[in-house]
Amino acid sequence: MDPEFVLDPATLDLHASDELLRRAGSLVPVLVEGVRAWAATSHSTLEAVLSHPAMTRDIRYWDAEARAAAPQGTSLMRLVTDASMLNADGEEHRRLRGPLVKLFSARQVQRMEPWITSIVGDLLEELAALPPDEPIDLRAEYAYPLPLRVIVEMLGIPDSHREPLRALTDQVVQLAQSPPDSSEGRRALFEMVGEIIELRRATPGEDLTSELIALHGQGQLDDAELRDTVQVLLIAGHVTTINLIAHAVRALLGRPAQLELLLSGAVPWSAAVEEALRWESPNAYFPMRYAMEDLEIEGVRLRAGEAVLACFSAAGRDPERYGDNAADFDVTRPSVPHLAFGHGPHFCLGAPLARLQAEVALPALFAAFPELRAAGPADDLPRLTSLLDNGIRGLPVLLGPPASR
């Protein structure tokens, strides 16, 4: 497998790269952070990879020589070596994911709506205190703090640890103009998650961390699984939702006719959320699936042990799935399922929670600030330097006066 494309986060033009990848084929050899892999570029191919019974997230099936040759310390390797449910399959996956399924079910999440609405109200009050005619970063002031507050409270993270934990997460996941992902940052985050676990062990409460500690005490999770599960819930529990809300606001600020359809009630806000997820998948590329045996997908032969990179952003704008206007944001688009939250056994556990937060946050924002407008071209904003997270670094806006009460 000779790579045709090098995916480098430092130079990545995401959607231009995605278009080139789709034109090259449904499964394309790439080099990503020093690792040779196949890139699943089309919707149908990605769906097949995510659901194929002979494709697995279990790193033990990755070709031993390829794994040994992979550069260590990269964001890709950090993810594929995680000991949480992220990289388990079969019985192991069910064991690790099972205790969390009920907690993140659509019914359970819907009960959180009043609480989430209250947090949104607090954030809007804070925005209303800012100068209405001076640019502010809506990503930093609204899209970011909402999902972060939700997940840290769900995990029972003490107030004393929230700000340093946020800074470390930003560094490791590259959410801001911070130092790049480094072994020092990951080590510090690892240690802080360990501190939080010990604090919750000493003073358990009604939170996710305490429930996971109880499972650890019953022998259902080992030390690494406990730590990595808390860390995955923390990071995945807010990063994708930040991207979702920021991209949705960005799209609507640049398309007043689309916004008016939502404000008038002609189109439900849920349609805007689903279209934002399709149009700008919160995850760009995500590692890895491994072929457990020789197999064929979309006419391409994969050998046992070969790795496949999931190209969610490419699949979301696949013209074969969404038509010639797949690159356009259109809240009236006929409802066609997308893959932004994955597919199959690893479908995103937090999908109902992310959707709910966006469906509460978006209408509340535009109702609170009816003159909200972009402070510059909304469709030309600097993106995160990341292969994994499809996000923007900032969203400068002018709030205008808050709605009269």
Automatic annotation (TrEMBL):
<dbReference type="Pfam" id="PF00067">
    <property type="entry name" value="p450"/>
</dbReference>
<keyword id="KW-0479">Metal-binding</keyword>
<dbReference type="InterPro" id="IPR002397">
    <property type="entry name" value="Cyt_P450_B"/>
</dbReference>
<dbReference type="InterPro" id="IPR001128">
    <property type="entry name" value="Cyt_P450"/>
</dbReference>
<keyword id="KW-0349">Heme</keyword>
<keyword id="KW-0503">Monooxygenase</keyword>
<keyword id="KW-0408">Iron</keyword>
<dbReference type="InterPro" id="IPR017972">
    <property type="entry name" value="Cyt_P450_CS"/>
</dbReference>
<comment type="similarity">
    <text>Belongs to the cytochrome P450 family.</text>
</comment>
<dbReference type="InterPro" id="IPR036396">
    <property type="entry name" value="Cyt_P450_sf"/>
</dbReference>
<keyword id="KW-0560">Oxidoreductase</keyword>
<protein>
    <submittedName>
        <fullName>Cytochrome P450</fullName>
    </submittedName>
</protein>
